């Protein structure tokens, strides 16, 4: 486990003892408040309020032998600025990304590696998958006690009311394309259904049209089960499901048929799992603080037969052409020259209202 702290509106938890790396470097054999976390990530999910003035998203200050101030603010025109003042030494970065919608979930990820004198600040739009990165030169290590205060927030920390969650990890957390299927989700293969967590490179899967495609990679990631990561239950028998499937909110279904043709004038549409919540086809899932998702990367971006429904495979667009961005993703460990390029999805992506209406029509 690399996640040591999680805050949301329902509570918080901070458990550094669950991280073997922190225990290994501690002189006491277990993490102590003054231990320095030299490598890690702070992830904040929030929504920005458009306006002409900066908006404070996160603020923390602490005095003592290691005085520190940490500030995250939105800036007019779109973007976020980070300032860390540790004993008079300033660390500063600005990441800009315009055209933010008020209701769109954003992930702000600050990652640091103090021994390498490297860090970055990432602003990520969860609906579109677009993200922007700014380098953070020479980021300082942070005391474990300060990270705990960021989560527990007794009196020294402020978090915007628009925030969904704040999480702290002891690793450089990836951004960009993310897996979206729970490990037991069955994927159709020529030999029958196989849980996605058991698929490996070189295995083959069946698309919704019956084509056989090889698995280039299976990617996995453990994330806070909150906000844009909070799992959704797709309920059978809707959309062809023969039993329920647990997916991330951003997992898209491909839906086709005469009702689709009649309502939208196209042979198929795409719908986010989160946009089906509120009807009979999908519900939220009560779970623990974290969840592990998996998915498969295919040569072509296709809808694969998943528990009987047609769910999109992992979409990466032309990410391999953007070396700087690729290095921050789960795909960074793979040979860039051998990664595929995926064309833009051919079918329209439904808004939430349209997705709910379609779900009701399909169940009538």
Strand content: 35-45%
Give the low-pLDDT segments.
none
Largest sheet, in brief, is: 7 strands, antiparallel
Spatial order of the strands in the main sheet? Answer: 2-1-14-4-9-10-11
* H/I helix tally: 5
Distance between the termini: 44 Å
Shape type: globular
The total of beta strands comes to 28
Mean pLDDT: 91
Radius of gyration: 21 Å
Question: What are its keywords?
Answer:
single chain; 364 residues; mainly beta; 7-stranded antiparallel β-sheet; 5-stranded antiparallel β-sheet; 5 helices; globular
What's the arrangement of secondary structure elements?
Elements: E1 3-8, E2 11-14, H1 20-25, E3 36-37, E4 39-46, E5 55-62, E6 68-74, E7 80-86, E8 89-95, E9 106-113, E10 118-125, E11 131-135, E12 142-143, H2 144-152, E13 157-159, E14 165-169, E15 181-182, E16 186-189, E17 192-195, E18 204-206, E19 212-214, E20 217-224, E21 232-234, E22 245-247, E23 252-256, H3 258-264, E24 268-272, E25 282-284, E26 290-297, E27 303-306, E28 309-312, H4 323-326, H5 352-363
Antiparallel strand pairs: 1-2, 1-14, 3-12, 4-9, 4-14, 5-6, 5-13, 6-7, 7-8, 9-10, 10-11, 15-26, 16-17, 18-19, 20-26, 21-22, 21-25, 23-24, 27-28
